[in-house]
Amino acid sequence: MRFVPLAAAGLAVLTLAACTAGKEGGPALGSQSKPSGTAPTALPAASIELWHGFSADSEVKAFTDAIAGFNQKYPQIKVKLVKGVQDEQITQAVRGGRPPDVASSFTTDSVATWCKSGVFQDLNPVIKQDGVDLSGLPPVVNDYTQYEGKRCVMPLLTDAYGLYYNKALMKGKQPPKTLSELTKLAKELTVRDPDGTIKVAGFIPSGQYYENTAGHWSAMVGAKWTNPDGTSAIGSDPAWKTLLNWQKELIDWYGYANLDKFRKSLGDEFSGKHPFYQGKVAMGIDGEWRVAMIANEAPKLDYGTAPMPVDDAKPDLYGSGFTAGTVIGVPKGAKNPEAAWALVKYLTTDTGALVTLANAIRNVPTTKAALESPELKKDEHFQTFLDIFANPKTSTIPAHVNSVFNQEALQGFVTSWEKGSVKDLDAGLKGVDKTIDAKFKLSGG
Amino acid sequence: MAAVPLRRREGFRALLWLSPWLVGFGVFFAYPLLATVYFSFFNYDLFSLKFNGLANYRYFLQDERAWLSIGNTAWLVVVMVPAQVLFALGVAQLVTKLKSGVGFFRTLFYLPSLVPVTAGTVAFVFLLNPATGPVNRILALAGISGPDWFGDKDWSKPGLTLLAMWGVGNVMVIFLAALLDVPKHLYEAAAIDGAGAWRQFRSITLPTIRPVLMFSAVTGVIYTLQYFTQAMIASRVAAGVTDAPGTSFVPGYPEMSTLTLPQWLFQTGFRDYAMGYACVLALVLFAASMVFTLVLLRQFRGFEEVAE
Fold first, then answer.
1. Using one digit for the tens of pLDDT, what is the confidence trace for A434-443?
2. What is the end-to-end Cα distance of chain A in Å, rounded?
3. How far is A344 from chain B (nearest CA, A)?
4. N or C: at which end does chain A have fewer Cβ atoms within 10 angstroms?
């Protein structure tokens, strides 16, 4: 029996790590009396820490430049930048009582959880106090930065998704506007050996390929993720069926095994060996940041950009796309919430700061003023994405407490579906609903 | 009359001497276990605590991925642990039979266990890469078309088993010591009685090294129930997912075949922040370790009785 306590002790350590209580700290934003006036110098001297997700040297430099602009306005506030931070680190730092003063995330996936559990402070009181005008934000951006009336983050920059096509491979053909045009063109542009081995793919319809996520694709058919009560709409919205049936038809045309082999032979998404640069893929869905990457990694590539092709039955969707962006806010327990809010406000509403960042990183700025600024660098490729972002039908994955879980549940299903392991699509999608709803119920939804 | 206070004083002294252990037991075992049971009845996202009765347990019964991960963990316990123990025993046996170069081979077989787990796992995924890895090239020379290893749901766990067998050095060294401890004269006597190699192994070697065998089986099972790092890294490398901010990674690639219970527990607790439910998974893991350990102890006790 000597080993029983040993076994128990081993697991005890695991469980100890899993389950202990958190603590409170730091003054809440807006609870302190406001220094008279809004003059930058009215804020006391402070040194604050900002955690962000950028890690490439050029991106970090852009961020440092934007902070330099802030320091001209607020010389008494010192900002320390910490790069390459992920959502989990932010949540755990807040929980451990040592949060940064300002934190930024690359994704909008955690926004609902953060707002609901109070990891980030509600910005509404200070927005009202300072008279910040948010009417310039597109509705979709408004959606992904708040949850149940709490605005706990501000949008910093955003990403928009569209279609990239290789002009040389297209041989003068126009980019497809509907899914059936996409299928037709994909078949025409594909080059195969007699045994089915793919040399050049017109379009890779696999959900396992780079940016081909269910989220990005949902914009092509206007598919709905959730019902107003937070339960899953995937099984009941016929748009998902349209999307998946379109996908499966093209997959079957290639042959799943052929496509899988081809996909696994391709280079890394974030390297100079991207198959789009090498002419191995003629068309693909990608984010606006690819424009900057192509300029760096494949400057000679002759390509074009266009909105995503859309469901044949919903032609009015053409011109829209998918968007989601970087968010920034003040975590609970921040030591200097007032100085932190000053920085957040500067970075997210100051046109100069937004344009500096957008130009350096080649992301889309979120405010109307920044979008219209003459300083914003534009070219024909980038303009496509600015237009997609500005399109009123452009969509996002709505904030949900289980956002990542829901996306994974659907993505996992898409993987089985494209492989041919799903016999009944309706029943399968209902199964996804069941998984999502059970989890939602567990989270207290 | 004086005996009672004396006994009481002795009892008190015993407690005093035991106190470091008692404190350790309380802080590192009793409290976490009780807290885990307590939180398992709550909806706990690390910030707010809300009683939800048996909802976490009910959710467990319908959580497909939990059952998948339990299946994968069970596969590893049933296949990987015996494979490791048998391989280590075989290698140790071979090394004892060597006439020369014992030191060299002992070092050679022990070395892999010094390689950091992460580095070893990454190297293995590259070795077993279906397109560029040397293993499949060598197999191809022999006319065998190698599998997709960490990219194929049927081969990913065997791939992890190979990795575990490669790093079996620690167990091998213990077996080696145990095998060298078996009295030589027993073999000599058995040989005179006409016992062959297999009979000698069964009737002399196995009973003598039984405690060591039990130790390695029990620790192997406990270790495998907590199998996390190798599976997580292998699936990440094979899936080609970088750990960059903004990317979300789902463990278990390909097709959930490498998702083990501790990974699902971690994912549930620290990604979804469903701590209450993660506590249920922790309790399941705890119960599984207890059951496996008790079964093993009973098995070995039976073995001991037969052997004697």
1. 999 999 999 8
2. 45
3. 20
4. N
